[in-house]
Structure prediction request, 743 residues.
Amino acid sequence: MIKRFVYSQKVAPYVFVLPFILIFLIFWFYPLVNSFVMSFQDRMLGQDPKWVGEANYSKLLTDKVFLTAIKNSVVYMLGTLVLLIPFPMLFAVMINSKLMVGREFFKSSFFLPALTSVAVAGTIFRLTFGEMEGSLMNSFLGLFGVEPIKFLKNGEWSMAALLILACWRWTGVNMLYYLSGLKSIDNEYYEAASIDGASAWQKFRTITMPLLKPTTVYVTTISIYAGLAMFTESLMMFNGNNSPKNIGLTIVGFLYRQGIEKNKLGYAAAVGIILLVIAMVINLTQLKFSGMFKKEED
Amino acid sequence: MKKRSTLISIVTVLIMSLVITACGNPSDSKKETQQLGTNAGENATELSFWTFVDLHGKHLDKMLGLWNQQNPEKQIKLNVTVMPYDDMHNKLLLAVTSGKGAPDIADIELGQFPKFMEGDNVPLESLNDVFAPYKDVVVPSRVQIYSKDDQVYGFDYHVGATLAFYNTEILEQAGVDYKTIKTWEDYKQAGIKVYEKTGKYLGTADTSATWQQSLLLAQQNSDFTDENGNPKVNSPEMIKALEMLVDLQKNNVIHTIPGGQPDTEEAKGEYNKGNYASALMPEWYMSRFVNEMKDLKGKYAIAPLPVFKEGDPRSVGLGGTGTVVTKNGKNVQLAKEFVAFAKLSKEATTEIWNTLGFDPINMDVWKDESVTKNPDNEYVQYFKTNAFDTLNEIKDEIKAIKSVKASPTISNIFNTVTLNAIFEDGQDVKEALDEAQAAIEQELK
Prediction:
């Protein structure tokens, strides 16, 4: 009986996807519904919840600190898209090239930062970008006669520092995605192009880039999410969740401040829902425009 | 050849990742639990204690030894867990409000205390009964700040009376005698001389802490909030305070400091280098000098704060950590008795001075010269003058700043936005304070 059940062609797919469905329901769908309900409540741990309707949402839309957090997260996300898609793609192509010497060495050195604890990396970057004359970056600039810069007190500089940290940390990972994408491109295309006398640039533009599109779409999708959800890097860089003039505050940082630091769980839940909506809208738009919803042509 | 290079790369990656993993997550590695009370018998009650200051655990260790000696029938073993500041407060708030996983005893910093007092169900035990025997010997305002509706919920380690710490070496180079600095105008003139003669600043313009605003408000008998606890940060007193600080900044008397305020790693580095000649900080800052600015030994003198006009109160109690008993404990009464003994008794407060260098809230200690002027005490040895000479001189002038529901929001907005806008970007004081008031009201809505 059990054997027949397990071997049944109709049942088997459901058995295989069951773990995913269960994980989805328990760890995603249930908390999501719960957060959605909570976002309409004034809720604090240890106190009885009060229903407040859409008050949390209307307060959020006029909360200047929240708007600053959204701006920071979006700028950071766009910055990571601009830096962490073309360069890793280029590095992957270079490393994949037969002319490349020390390929494995570069692969591991690029990937190494991803293994580093973000807490350690953030702290090191904080010291590197310190405002003292003796901090690494200012000592370096001092060689060229530049006055010390207060990197982490200035919006543009601190965003640059966060993006440098992101590049240092994620270039290797994205590069590996592209390397695996490159492996799936059939060499015959390049051979044919060579016979036709195509230059390296022409091959890259007309063969490599189009065939890497699925990888690019994937990397873009996860980068959008990762950019919007960034929190730990900023927490470590500014030695806490409170940066000067909130220049390092992200949406998740704001959620953490409200929910964990201030015990305003209802308000924090509303932030979470808005983050989800923003991420979904951007990602779905991006997927739509990249043609991912079109049925594959035979 | 290719195989070998792959192998080398893999080994390199493995070694590096091991090294980095060994560095670990600092917030985890800092968390450690240690059992205290080695002299306790087998039947001793086990209690747990969370703190964010390692030294506080050491103090309780000493007190535990005494308690177990004096109370053989009520012996205690204490499991102390030290966690980073934010981590500990966040975990404690979640634990006490959810009723799961909280320790028996915990330290809560004054600025975080209002979060634990919100709503009708305070998750902490009232300490009124164990406080009664000490009522007459402790500074009332330091108990008031941990109270709600006539119930006391925490006992502090110190008064935190704000004092002026002057680097006499730098001042002498500039021809300034710190004893002549009585008013803020004197402070300004002294600072101008110091900058002209030495190129150093007399003090700091703080951007990440509100010590300066607190002391300047207290000196004008004002506060961040009104009598009902509502924020009033754009009051005439606050404007006067900040405009004075901006004037000092413009005259190169004070200057912003890396880290944003004297009690940060970066700022202590600046003090060690001798770039700033004074710190106007609570008494507990003495422990930072002794433990983290050892090179400055013998250079610093302690004096009362300057005031707007002579006769104004010269100090304010700032900072603080209340030790509380949570409602989750197994033996709440024993925990309460021990906390009172470890924080308020004469033995305890003497040790608080000896070990921690704090000005204890039991005033009996302030009068006992065998304790306050003990030549073996490292805090006595470090400074050119004795802290208790100044403390006793100003003891009737130590004002308090209220810690109310709005306080964490006020400090948050001041320390992130307002003070940076004024001292780093030069925003107009009145405008910055109006914006701060609006932001605080919006946040508290």
User: Anything to note?
Assistant: Chain A has a mean pLDDT of 90. The CA atoms of residues 1 and 7 of chain A lie 10 Å apart.
